[in-house]
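Quick one before lunch.
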Amino acid sequence: MAILLGSIADDYTGASDLANTLTKNGLRTVQTVGIPDPSLALPDVDAVVVSLKIRSVPAPDAVAAATSAERWLRRRGASHVLYKICSTFDSTDTGNIGPVTEALSDAAGGGIVLVTPAFPETGRTVYLGHLFVGSQPLNESPLKDHPLSPMHDANLVRVLTRQSQGAVGLIDLAAIAAGPDAVRARLDALRTTGITLAIADAIFERDLETLGEIALETPVSTGASGLGLGLARALVRSGRISAGGAVTTDAMRPVGGLSAIVAGSCSKATLRQLDVAERSMPVLRLDPERLLAGPDEIAAAIAWAGDRIAAGPVVVAASAAPETVSRLQSLYGREASGHAIETATSIIAAELVERGVKRLVVAGGETSGAAVDRLAIPAFLIGPEIAPGVPVLRTVGNAQGDMLLVLKSGNFGGEDFFAAALAMMN
Ligand code: ADP
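Model of the adenosine-5'-diphosphate complex:
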């Protein structure tokens, strides 16, 4: 079946957030890891989010990857493609939001593109073209000190103009509040002045619902998960979605096998979740220095887990308190120690899967990315949420057969998160 909505996300965590938002708003959604192989067999879904890592790469590379993802999505039937960006408009004067948006628009035959990073649920609103992060204008928010793309201007019409070839205009809140016809009229007026990119105000979800309806009348839009919400609700309202209430049940069909948890997050929430898990299941605390010294600690962890896992879920954790983390970082460097531990936890996860684990929880954003890469999982179908922002994922096209995964970053989830995740995947 043809997909209704395609999306290209400029980073992986943004892709997950969008895929989860689309699912919660009624679309059966698959998230791919990178541009999928042409042969990837999709389940019956409404939306596909292609996850790329193009937020801060040189603009020509971002354009090449995004247009290749666009071709894949169009071949699968997507009539609208959302370029998913960060809700804080992370970009520099050389891109990549402008160049990628214009390339996607050109590929679809041109026309005017709606652009809005608004996502009211997370405090991102746009008024008269100015982006607010909570109560602060973008240029006064912590984003002014972002290491890769410091944002010194809250006026998105100006920001987008600096990184685009075409002219940028504004659809203001007054037009949006007046409803879809007023927005159409405003877009027509902008078109006649030669404008090709339109920053759209949005403060409430209802504004994004209006924008979603209008965006669906065009081939391309650019926005954060808020615009995804608007597009999903507009599609559901249009009657083109057949799933009804059963959006996430497909994802939850049992997969059998064993279950395990691998943790590399050192966040306060994860450390507490590990302490709580220790009361009900075996937990192995890895020795980070030994992990960095060679393969013995990994082999020992796999042997430890192998002895126990048939009897029930086990937890293997590199996670440590801040003092221990800082000591390791001062000895080996922050990047090197983080990367080495991610490699170790990903090897442990892959070995556990080799030994029959089909239900896997990974704690830590980077830790999850490394594990998913090593497991070479091509895509996920998004299931129901265990905690806000953390859904169960069902693998799609996985060489080892269907698995259920939970990828939890940092501070997400309550203190009994691990038991709750395992219970849900049963
Ligand atoms: P979070 O989502 O909580 O930020 P991440 O997985 O993104 O978690 O980041 C945690 C980082 O800390 C990873 O690079 C991981 O390899 C590293 N790490 C895990 N355990 C330790 C440790 N004991 N000492 C130092 N670094 C660690």
